[in-house]
Amino acid sequence: MTNNNDPAVAAARLGDELKSIAGRMSAVSADFEAFTASLARESETPQDADAPPVAATGPQPAPQPEPEPQPQPEPQPHLQYATVPPTVGTPFTRQPFGPQSYGVPSYAPQPYPPPPYGPPSYAPRPFPAPPATPAPSLGKRLSDAAERGLVGRVLAAVGVAITLIGIVLLLVLAAQAGLLRPELRVAGGAVFAAALVGVGSRVGRRPEKRPGAVALVATGVAAALLDVLAATAIYGWLPESAALVAGALIGGGGLWSAHRWNSQALALMVSVPLLVFAPVVAGGVDELLVCFMLTYAAATLWLQAGRDWTSLFVVNTVATTLPMTVFVVIGDGPAWFLAVTALTGLALALCSAIMLAPASSRAVVLGLTSVAAAIPLPMIAGQWTAGAGSSTAVIGLGAVLFVVAAVATRGPASVPFVCRVVWLAAGAVLISMALGVALDASTVSLGFLAGAVIMGLAARWADDLRGAVRIAATVFAGLGLSSLLKTGGAQQLLYPGGLSDSVHATLLVGSLLGLAATMVLAREWGTAAPSRAQQIWLIGGLIGLWLTTELCVGVAGVATGGSTTGFRAGHLAATLVWFGSAAAALMWARRLQGASRTFTLATGLSVIAAAVAKLFLFDLAALDGMFRVIAFIVAGLVLLSLGVAYAQRFTSEEPAH
Q1: What's residue 438's pLDDT?
Q2: 614 pLDDT tier (thresholds 50, 70, 90)
Q3: What radius of gyration, in Å, describes the C-alpha atoms of the chain?
Q4: What is the DSSP annotation of 538-576?
Q5: 3-state secondary structure of 229
Q6: Model confidence over 20-62: pLDDT tens digits?
Q7: Other CB atoms closer than 10 Å to residue 308's CB: what's the count?
Q8: Structural contact between residues 628 and 619, judged by C-beta atoms closer than 8 angstroms
Q9: CA-CA distance, 106 to 414, in Å (whole number)?
Q10: Nearest to 550 by CA among 569, 565, 571
Q11: What local confidence, expressed as pLDDT, does residue 515 receive?
Q12: What is the pLDDT of residue 206?
């Protein structure tokens, strides 16, 4: 036998296998080249549109050229290799591409295992940061501002200020130094103002030159107003009434260009310098200046209609309110004059806000600014020498103006809701101030509680302001009840004697008003929040029990002059009322069903618990003699009666067996 382990034999066998593999690889290469050529020909030749569709059984291989037969090695009888069949004398035929086509040992395909760590992940490459844009230079920014017209507007505003300063120097300082004649100063100012207005009106015909025209017209109008003020305040050539008429004509007519050009800046360039320079020309704040500013604000109101010129409204309101406030602080003028002018200024501010609100985008600013116009009212009332009645009337009229403005502007296309709420709140504050001025510490609680009752009843007709009125009424009720305790309500319940008959009477009336306010507000809040109605009525009931006790003790104190016997009798009556109210509630609950019965039953039991607690914690120690006996006997009989009634009720409802 031939030894297959001989190195020579092994080398010969490997050589034969390598030759066989080389032949097969050559055949595979020829088949692949033919397949590639056929694919290229198919891509170059367009398919016929009428050709039948290709069957969906799979791709059809293109015809391949027959490869030339390759020479095969001679079989070796002494070699045994089971996987390579003998091919001597057998022509080579093309077979489907695959490992079995060339006699390679076949193996079952094995699925590739998944990668051990999932699909390959690549860290995202960060985008490069954009190159930093260099900041524009100062020259570039100035150039852009000049192209936008900002530089021109700034220069024009500065020019207006400097020119008006020159006019003021001409009218005031030149007069003090004796330069020029008074006629030349006043006439020169008037001619200069007319020339500026005329030139500005002519230049403003062209829209591209209108910013400069605005500055010219504004300077001329402001100069004319200051000239009229100087002619009256410094030289006395015009009576004050004539100065007011002239100022109204110049302000209202001179600013017609602002309305025509829709330029709020023009009006502001007049109002702001007038606010600053008018006190200088007038020689201080006096009656003439106050009336002059009011007249100017009223005359320029028409040009704001239909415009969103909130800034002008704020400036004009400050221009009328600030001189009045300063005049009040100085205290040189009569209080009646300031009261009339302050109410006029407030009415003017409210009318202006009502006219501007439909077109304004800042209704809150309108509301708050008009409220600021009422600042002089309490200050004037504090310095009024005619008495508390006149001061109360001044503040009360201001409150009426706010309430009327808030209520009378309801409806579509009217003053926004938030603005009217601000006015209503301001009116409530002024009402509280009026009550504080009109009433002393012992009776102020009556005023607050009466106001709470009135507001609570009026809330039903307040429409969209009903919630605000309800809140104001609740605040007033809280202030009134707190004042009632401070007046002597706590002392009346805890200690016998020590209070005068007038205090007992005040507490008696306050208790009645408090009960009315509590019931009205409980109904209002219960209607507004039905889901919380039970809790609201429970809180109202507890407050009602306290006020009922105040009422009983107050009646006994008034009847007996604040004696100890009256104190004990009042508490005895209060205890009996507590038990009687609880019994009535529990008996009424028997007639109800569902949630109403549950709520009434819970309320009655709560009052019973409070009454029992009062009986043992207070009455047992405070009452004496027959008062204590009566309290315990009546309380026990009430509880026994309720127990029998409810036991009978439940027994009758048990099913028959």
Answers
A1: 86
A2: confident
A3: 51
A4: HHHHHHHHHHHHHHHHHHHHHHHTS-HHHHHHHHHHHHH
A5: helix
A6: 887 778 777 777 777 777 776 765 554 444 444 444 444 444 4
A7: 15
A8: yes
A9: 94
A10: 571
A11: 93
A12: 79
Contacts (Cβ under 8 Å, ≥6 apart) of 321: 345, 349, 372, 373, 375, 376
Which DSSP helix (H) or strand (E) runs through 597?
helix 594-614
> What is the C-alpha separation between 405 and 419, in angstroms, rounded?
10
Lowest mean pLDDT among 17-31, 134-148, 295-309: 134-148
3 state SS for 578-590 = HHHHHHHHHHHHC
How many residues are listed for the chain in this entry? 657
What is the token pair recorded at 606?
A: 């709560």
Q: What is the mean pLDDT of the chain?
A: 77
Whether residue 456 contacts residue 473, with contact meaning beta carbons closer than 8 Å, is answered with yes
Q: Which of 302, 303, 152 is closest to 215 using CA atoms?
A: 152
164 or 582: which leads in pLDDT: 582
| 3-state secondary structure (DSSP) of residue 27 | helix
Quick one: which of 68, 62, 255, 275 has its CA closest to 161? 275
Question: Whole-angstrom Cα distance, residue 644 to residue 44?
Answer: 111
Q: Which two tokens stand for residue 624?
A: 């004496």
Question: Would you say 447 and 435 are in contact if contact means Cβ atoms under 8 Å apart?
Answer: yes
Distance between CA atoms of residues 581 and 610, nearest Å: 11
Q: Residue 132 carries which DSSP code?
A: P
Q: What is the pLDDT of residue 83?
A: 42
Question: What is the model's pLDDT at position 86?
Answer: 46
Residue 501: Cβ within 10 Å count: 11
Please name the residue that has the structure tokens 């507001």.
455
Smallest CA-to-CA distance from 24 within 109, 82, 87, 115 is with: 87
Question: Which tokens is 208 given?
Answer: 């591209």
